[in-house]
Amino acid sequence: MKKFIVFIITFFIGLNTCFAISVPSNNAILIDQDSGRILFSKNINEKHLIASTTKIMTAVLAIESGKLDDMITINESILKSHGSGIYIKEGEKISLRNLVYGLLLRSGNDAALAIEDYLGGHDKFVNKMNEKAGEIGMKNTVFNNPSGLDDDETGNYSTCYDMALLMKYANNLYDFKEIDSTKKIMVETNVNVYSWTNKNKLLFSYKYATGGKTGYTVKAKRTLVTSASKRNVNLIAVTFNDRDDFNTHKKLYEYGFANYSNYLIINKDKIRIKSKKYKNLYVKSNYYYLMQNNERDNINTTVIVYNKKDKTDGSVGYIEVFYKNNSVHKEPIYVR
Q1: What does DSSP assign to residue 133?
Q2: Residue 16 — very low, low, confident or very high, per pLDDT cuts 50/70/90?
Q3: Does 71 map to a domain?
């Protein structure tokens, strides 16, 4: 397809300042939820046991199964469960949705086993976990079970970077965000009435927190994945082996919110795109990129116009945004 490069005018807004931080975690990362940009990193590609943060992936597969409202009769698969649980019983009837609540809020290992059993059994479910990890781009991750337990010397291994990618993906699922951000819920089954409070203490102690998942085993130590939002800035933090991880996450978020702002790169109402082939070109959406004030000169844009419309989406080209010569976004262009 023949392409033409044309001229574009863009607009920037925002101001902020910068300071450096250090954290006690063995491994840590802070990323922008929207662009995936890394704002802070410490040993982010070292493989590590991830304990119950595994359950983010288990929840993703349960949600994407399309069966959240199915009623499940709990069978003997949960009898293998130990450690943290929601303490469901064999013969109990509960929806898949409520199992995910128990999985994320209470870190129920029994909920993880029940979900695995209902969605195809151990081998099939673990294969799906690893397939989904590949789709998301988690290149240094291996799942062996749905709970994160590692007492059988297998366990699940990942990196801070990969787990940040997983949380970024999960946060784009409406049901995940709704469940994961819940502080407390009452669940009634044919056997019991449960009151579950979220183990993610950040939801109660930090007003900008929006969700996350805790984890701990003797081998893995503490693992924590969380998210937070303030003034249209959406961040994700991951730490491994940090005894003060909740405070570390607050520190990472305060660093991010204090030093970075979303700058308007493509303003759909003011942008003017010149092309010899088409008139009245436009884009449907604004595009923002998270930066520090002194980084704005690192942004460049290029417009590519096709010689005919794209049959898949009707676009006639795209605006490509570069940060330090790395492509970070493509915004489709249309003709009125």
Answers
A1: H
A2: very low
A3: yes
